[in-house]
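Problem: given the chain below (51 residues), write out its structure.
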Amino acid sequence: MIVLGVILLVIGFITSIQILWSIGIALVVIGAILAVLGGTGRRIGGRAHWY
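Solution.
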């Protein structure tokens, strides 16, 4: 999710498309939150592990 967010950020920056920039920021933030919560051992969405 973080990688997809970064890719959208780069594409949005190069092409000056604001919606890609906004979606990229949202994906990076959500991915970082999920990574931190998953790293602390908390269950996310009822699952103990995300594959």
